[in-house]
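TASK: fixed-backbone design
INPUT:
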C-alpha cells in the first residue's frame, strides 16, 4: 500500500513521542484521519464533540505529562474553534501542535465555502505556523520545524 501524506505525518508524530491526538474529523482532514487510522496501534485518537474541547484536552495533556499535546480540526470554523484552548497553551507555555485542514489551493481567495485565512488567524498565537499547499512537501517539512510549535 502506498504511503499517503497523512500516514507520513502520523509516523513522524510517533517518532516525536506522540501517542494521543484529540480531535473532530471533517472533510478538510480526511487524509490525516486515514493516516491516524493506519497507525492506530501507536496513535490513539480521542474523538471529541467540539473542536474547542480538543484544544483544551491537548493543552491539559501537555500540562499533565510535559509532552507535546496534539489536536486536530477541519478547515474554517473547525480550526477557529481551537483558538481558546490554544491560547491557554500559549499563555501557560505548554507545547501544543494544532493540525488543521484547509481548502485546496485552487479555490483559495474565491470565497469558497468556509474559507478562512488560518495563517493570519494563528499569527498571534503560534510559535510556528505553516501552510503547506503541496502535499508532496509534507514529509520534508515534518522533519524539521513542526515539533517546535
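OUTPUT:
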Amino acid at each position: 500500500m502506498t504511503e499517503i501524506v497523512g500516514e507520513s505525518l502520523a509516523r513522524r508524530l510517533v517518532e516525536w513521542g506522540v501517542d494521543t491526538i484529540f480531535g473532530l474529523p471533517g472533510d478538510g482532514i480526511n487524509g490525516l484521519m486515514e493516516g491516524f487510522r493506519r497507525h492506530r496501534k501507536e496513535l490513539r485518537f480521542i474523538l471529541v464533540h467540539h473542536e474547542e474541547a480538543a484544544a483544551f484536552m491537548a493543552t491539559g495533556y501537555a500540562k499533565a505529562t510535559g509532552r507535546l499535546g496534539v489536536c486536530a480540526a477541519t478547515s474554517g470554523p473547525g480550526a477557529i474553534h481551537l483558538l481558546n484552548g490554544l491560547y491557554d497553551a500559549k499563555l501557560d507555555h505548554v507545547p501544543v501542535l494544532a493540525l488543521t485542514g484547509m481548502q485546496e489551493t485552487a479555490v483559495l481567495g474565491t470565497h469558497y465555502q468556509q474559507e478562512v485565512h488560518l495563517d493570519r488567524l494563528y499569527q498571534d498565537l503560534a510559535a510556528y505556523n505553516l501552510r503547506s499547499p503541496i502535499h508532496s512537501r509534507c514529509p520534508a517539512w515534518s522533519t524539521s520545524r513542526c515539533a517546535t510549535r
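COMMENT: Residues 93 and 108 are 32 Å apart (CA to CA).
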